[in-house]
Amino acid sequence: MKPVSEAKKTSNNSQGAKDKQTSSGCRVTRSGRQVKEAQLQEDDTDSHDSYESTEDELYRPPKVVGDNLYSSESDSDSGKGKRSRKRDSRSEVREKQKPPKKRLADKEIDTDDSNYEGSEDEESSESDLEDSDAASDADSWHSEDSDKVLESDEEAPAVFPQFNEKTKFGELKFEVSMVFKSKSEFMQATRDYTIQWGRNIFFSKNDKVRVRAVCKSEDCPWVVYCACNKQDGSWQIKTLVDNHTCPRRRKNRAATQTWTLSKLVPKLRKHPTMKHREVYDWFVRKCNVYLNSTCITRALKAARKIVEGDEIAQYGLVWDYANELLTSNPGSTVQVSVIPMPESPPLFDRFYVCLDACKRGFKAGCRPLIGLDGAFLKTLHGGQILTACGQDANNHILVIAYAIVSVENKDNWKWFLELLHNDLGDYRENK
């Protein structure tokens, strides 16, 4: 161990070295070199502000005090106090430099900076809350519907134009991708479309999966191509060149009997008494097409069969008709005569009808005179109708009875008069 005297000496030496270092401003390193240290000048804001004028104070940018992680609350409070003092001094200088009129106008308006800053903070906080709420709502929506989005990755199906079969003649239009329910609907629409524009076409391709129609004129580019959709069985137009270079024609081979019948049946339902010439004029006026006489005759006959019913099938309903007459007119006389056939249903022969109201009306108020007459039936099977008529006090004709027979002969007249005599009774009783 060192003695006490030596320890004192070493402490005195170190103290002297420190005094030398502080006096000369140099520091001695381990290697023995002396390094001169630069003296730090303290930032004196008061002295710095003393030599600056008030005008420089206005335009000098404020000092930004950085955030110190290790600073205490007292330092932050002192920094705020300094900034408030500087702000107050600047506002006083600005007020002095303003003209008196503007100064008075500003006094009327409350411009408290502290309140303004507080309102801005409140608005910013409210906007942040709204943004956070909107973000949360968006997240919640995404969380609810995210599964649906992931499940349906396929695109929405395309919507194609549908053909309307109720479109009036003359307003029909074709479009690419137009969908038809069946092949027959497409072919019928194509006929209507070509007749509407007065052009002759033919189907160059016609099978189970495709149909192609082209114009008969060699130089005309018009063409329509329709193919079958295997998924739902519908037919869709794939190609359409809707440009005719050929002239319009009044006579069209596309106006077949089937097409004529389809247009004539609705017209005949409204006007059941249409004649041959009226049908011809109607097609020229409505469809702008000329039809030959044979086509109109056959179409008119077929249309009447559809509208009025099949005459052959109606003969099978004679028994039903007789029972209905007896049910709705009690006391009437209805008789059906047939020809029996051994290996087939019986054939119709004669039919007699005398309604109860007609019998009683003739006996009560008609003159004691009966008129007999026969006429031909212009139907598919022909025949004749026999009638017995009377005359009332107003000279009006009253039908007493009638019968349908195959031919007007003595046998049929005898059969008809015997049935009439049974219904009216002896003429001597009704004088």
UniProtKB/TrEMBL annotation:
Biased composition annotated in UniProt, kind: Acidic residues: 40-56, 109-136
Q: Name one Pfam family in it.
A: MULE
Where along the chain is composition biased (Polar residues)? 10-26
Q: Which domain of life is it from?
A: Eukaryota
Tell me the ranges covered by the MULE transposase domain, including all copies.
370-418
Ranges for the Transposase MuDR plant domain? Answer: 173-234
Here the segments flagged for biased composition (Basic and acidic residues) are 89-108, 139-151
Q: Where is this region: Disordered?
A: 1-157
Record's protein name: Transposase MuDR plant domain-containing protein
Species of origin reads Arachis hypogaea
